[in-house]
Specification:
CATH architecture: 3-Layer(aba) Sandwich
CATH class: Alpha Beta
Order of helices and strands: EHEHEHEEHEHHEHEHHEHH
Structural class: alpha/beta
Helix content: 40-55%
Number of helices: 11
């Protein structure tokens, strides 16, 4: 059974990374996709590629931190079977190097962008009596990320918001999942903001395998088909998450080791 054939899907952050991979995979499975991104040229490139491959897609410029624009875009889309709230970015650096403006920006995009889309999408799906919201969180939202407190904080909030919305939507025909990948090979590393550290040094500190984008997309869509509340992958992500739940002291030990290595990279 093809869960996505003939369905409509709205994907934010669709111009690159996981968003782009979702758009292409959903279209290949027969869904009609809206590729939404603040980068309109990038969104158009993805949509045009989908169409050339025989799929159905349209591009839309959208800043997810603009809640009113997000709601208008979803209303204009008509029927909404799947909403993938995927847009986001990372700030890599210690809390002492961040100002309030940086915190506000990442919260506006990573958290409030998800909330804005979910609020508008949820209303549409309740009226329809069906639909599935999939919010991109991260392993960092489950296990933490020393040296990336702002990113981890927003992703942890996305996880909890998704779980609460899922509980409310269950009796209304609305499904909600949070996707919590480990490290995926995407442009998020290129687009991240680095505070007093350099990208290459940070990448060398990652102690776990970086998984291929295609593998991540398959895992996400398989989790959506199963209607998993939390789609945690790959295996090491599930293992680390469970170990930290069972043995909370690991948070302290892992965090201490991680920040020690991080500080060796720090520049004035």
């Amino acid at each position: 059974m093809n869960f996505f054939h003939g369905k409509t899907a709205f994907v934010t952050g669709g111009a690159s990374g996981i968003g782009r991979g979702l758009c292409e995979a959903l279209a290949a499975r027969g869904a009609e996709v809206t590729v939404a991104d603040i980068d309109l040229d990038g969104a158009r490139a993805v949509a045009e590629g989908v169409v050339r491959s025989g799929g159905k897609a349209r591009a839309l410029q959208l800043d997810v931190s603009d809640g009113e624009a997000f709601a208008r875009a979803l209303d204009a889309a008509g029927r909404l079977d799947y909403l993938f709230n995927n847009a986001g970015f990372a700030i890599v650096g210690e809390v002492r190097d961040m100002d309030l403006a940086a915190w506000k920006h990442i919260v506006d995009v990573n958290l409030m962008g998800v909330v804005a889309g979910s609020l508008a999408g949820h209303k549409i799906m309740v009226r329809q009596g069906s639909g599935h919201i999939v919010n991109t969180a991260s392993l960092a939202g489950l296990a933490g990320m020393p040296g990336g407190a702002a990113y981890a904080t927003t992703k942890a909030a996305v996880v909890m918001f998704s779980r609460m919305l899922r509980a409310e939507g269950e009796g209304l025909g609305v499904k909600v999942s949070a996707s919590c990948p480990g490290f995926v090979r995407t442009a998020i590393f290129d687009h991240a903001q680095y505070l007093h550290v350099d990208k290459e040094g940070v990448l060398q500190l990652i102690p776990l395998p970086i998984i291929a984008l295609a593998t991540a997309i398959e895992d996400i869509l398989a989790g959506v088909e199963r209607n998993d509340a939390l789609i945690v992958f790959p295996f090491y992500a599930r293992l680390l998450w469970r170990l930290m739940r069972w043995f909370p002291v690991l948070h302290t030990l892992v965090g201490r080791k991680a920040i020690s290595g991080f500080r060796r990279l720090r520049t004035p």
